[in-house]
């Protein structure tokens, strides 16, 4: 019995109690939930439904809990129900009901853990969005791992998600990039406000190969060639490196298009219609202080130039007009000051900043080797890049390491830890379970042990304490996925895989022999345990997939 199925049993019992007592059934929720008690001695699952309904129907919670417990005790699969505290229901399943979960997981396969919890929500998720002036640095890589995992989680819980990379191909940073490329092509030092690194020489040489005439152009024309061609080449490299990291975006949105299509003017008109703009010192301002910002913001300067903030406004409006109800933006630690102005901007458009706009701030990442931070890339010259991280520990370890921690916590990625094949390496510890379960399945086939069809499965045989612990761990997966999506915290999936599933499986494996030994006859117990082994493989694989990490069959 899955937690969802048990929750339905609890709700059905509540309907029966309300009908028998003449209570208002309109007070009953459309759905309820059960959860695992922290203390296993309190049962397999707990329900707070009696506490939730007590005030609504005017029945003391323990009295209502007693009626629910009596009704639940008659339900198939329920071994016992105890009332605790002010009205908690502690529920124990019989072995057959608990063991049925193994078959349900195996038969559900890749769909196990998915739900419709966020169905109907249309979410635009923007992440990475690094300027196309250099390779993706390690901070951007964190957002690549976390953002992609979050998109997978949101989709797994029914949300309609569009992932997006905002391509900043307009503004002064692009001019500095073009000047830096021109200098690299001429063998000159980088401009004082420019960019440095061997990658600039590489791109400059590629531009010269594309446009052999560039060296004969005047400085302004040559700089324009390097701007157009260089940005295209740099962004192609960024997309390629992210693709190799397992991250693809539904939309790559060019900032320049906002300017070319007149969307900044359109956004300004909308803000004027809402009455939040004013003129001062020859510039056009947005009165964001009306909505809690620390100061008002300039949209268009006195010389007629648009500000970066004006582009932010236009881009937000563009997303909303494309039908996205909720705009989620992932920003680095150095963007914390953007929160106030962006929330105020959404309010100036007439939106609810708490419902329509969500900004996630990520903290810094350091790559550590021999106890000391790796300071810079040989190629980029100033930062540690995506390629540096992957070269150091591999794609799977990098994605797992970056998604394993809450995004608002700084992290150090220790090269020695994340590359060694030992249980203290978290990704190895989890992937080893994936490989071990696959190995057990292979070995089972070699000795003639198969699960058989579901009708021959005898779940009541899975009564060992360690089998029960593993079943309860596997049962948590759908709730972990839903909570991780709702709280925007993919690290919960990683910690669950390590601390619940992997630990429980190793204890099960050590205490409950799955395969027959020697000439031992294959029994129904062996088959039942093979179902449980394969169910574990499903959960590990599904969980790792949500993190963008492989579930190897061999290690």
Primary descriptors:
555 residues, alpha/beta, 5-stranded parallel sheet, 3-stranded antiparallel sheet, 14 strands
Quick one: how many beta strands?
14
What would the average pLDDT be, to the nearest integer?
92
Task: Determine the N-to-C terminus distance.
Answer: 33 Å
Q: What count of helical segments does DSSP give?
A: 21
Description:
A hairpin with a 2-residue loop joins strand 12 (365-369) and strand 13. With 555 residues, the chain is of the alpha/beta class. It has helices at 3-21, 49-57, 61-72, 95-108, 138-156, 172-185, 198-210, 219-244, 255-260, 263-273, 308-321, 338-348, 353-356, 386-393, 395-403, 415-419, 426-446, 465-475, 477-487, 491-511, 524-546; strands at residues 45-47, 78-84, 88-93, 122-126, 160-167, 251-254, 277-280, 283-286, 297-300, 326-331, 357-361, 365-369, 372-373, 411-414. The strands form four sheets. A five-stranded parallel sheet has the order 6-5-4-10-11, sandwiched between helices. Helix content is 51%, strand content 12%. The radius of gyration is 29 Å and the shape is flat. The chain starts with a helix and ends in a 9-residue tail after the last helix. The protein contains 21 helices and 14 strands.
């Amino acid at each position: 019995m899955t937690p969802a199925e048990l929750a339905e049993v609890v709700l059905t019992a509540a309907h029966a109690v309300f009908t028998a007592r003449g209570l208002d059934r309109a007070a009953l929720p459309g759905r309820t939930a059960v959860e695992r008690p922290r203390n296993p001695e309190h049962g397999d699952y707990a329900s707070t439904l009696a506490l939730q309904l007590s005030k609504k129907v005017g029945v003391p919670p323990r009295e209502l809990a007693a009626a629910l417990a009596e009704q639940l005790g008659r339900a198939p699969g329920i071994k016992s129900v105890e009332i605790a505290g002010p009205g908690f229901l502690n529920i124990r399943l019989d072995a057959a009901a608990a063991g049925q979960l193994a078959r349900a997981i195996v038969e559900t396969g890749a769909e196990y853990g998915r739900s419709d919890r966020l169905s109907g929500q249309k979410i635009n998720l923007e992440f990475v969005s690094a300027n196309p002036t250099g390779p993706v640095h390690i901070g951007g890589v964190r957002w690549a791992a976390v953002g992609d995992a979050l998109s997978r989680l949101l989709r797994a819980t029914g949300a309609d998600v569009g992932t997006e990379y905002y391509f900043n191909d307009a503004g002064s940073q692009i001019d500095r990039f073009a000047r830096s490329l021109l200098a690299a092509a001429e063998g000159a030092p980088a401009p004082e406000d420019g960019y440095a690194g061997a990658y600039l020489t590489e791109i400059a040489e590629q531009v010269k190969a594309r446009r052999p005439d560039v060296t004969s152009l005047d400085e302004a024309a040559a700089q324009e060639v390097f701007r157009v061609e260089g940005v295209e080449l740099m962004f192609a490299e960024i997309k390629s490196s992210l693709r190799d990291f397992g991250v693809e975006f539904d939309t790559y949105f060019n900032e320049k298009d906002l300017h070319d299509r007149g969307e900044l003017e359109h956004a300004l008109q909308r803000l004027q219609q809402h009455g939040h703009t004013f003129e001062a010192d020859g510039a056009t301002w947005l009165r964001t202080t009306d909505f809690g910002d620390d100061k008002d913001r300039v949209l268009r300067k006195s010389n007629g130039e648009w500000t970066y903030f004006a582009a932010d406004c236009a881009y937000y409006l563009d997303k909303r007009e494309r039908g996205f109800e909720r705009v989620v933006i992932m920003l680095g630690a150095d963007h914390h000051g953007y929160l106030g102005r962006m929330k105020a901007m959404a309010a100036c458009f007439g939106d609810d900043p708490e419902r329509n706009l969500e900004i996630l701030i990520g903290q810094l990442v350091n790559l550590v080797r021999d106890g000391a931070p790796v300071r810079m890339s040989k190629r980029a010259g100033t930062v540690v890049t995506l390629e540096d991280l992957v070269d150091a520990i591999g794609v799977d370890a990098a994605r797992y390491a970056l998604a394993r921690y809450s995004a608002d916590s700084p992290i150090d990625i220790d090269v020695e830890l994340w590359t060694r094949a030992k249980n203290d390496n978290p990704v190895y510890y989890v992937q080893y379970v994936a490989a071990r379960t696959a190995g057990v399945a292979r070995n089972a086939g070699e000795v003639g042990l198969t699960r058989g069809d579901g009708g021959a499965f005898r779940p009541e045989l899975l009564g060992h304490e360690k089998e029960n612990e593993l079943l309860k761990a596997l049962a948590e997966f759908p709730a972990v996925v839903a909570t991780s999506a709702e709280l925007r915290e993919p690290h919960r999936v990683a910690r669950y895989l390590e601390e619940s599933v992997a630990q429980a499986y190793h204890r099960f494996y050590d205490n409950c022999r799955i395969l027959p030994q020697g000439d031992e006859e294959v029994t129904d117990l062996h088959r039942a345990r093979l179902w449980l082994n394969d169910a574990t493989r499903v959960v590990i694989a599904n969980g790792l997939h949500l993190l963008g990490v492989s579930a190897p069959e061999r290690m």
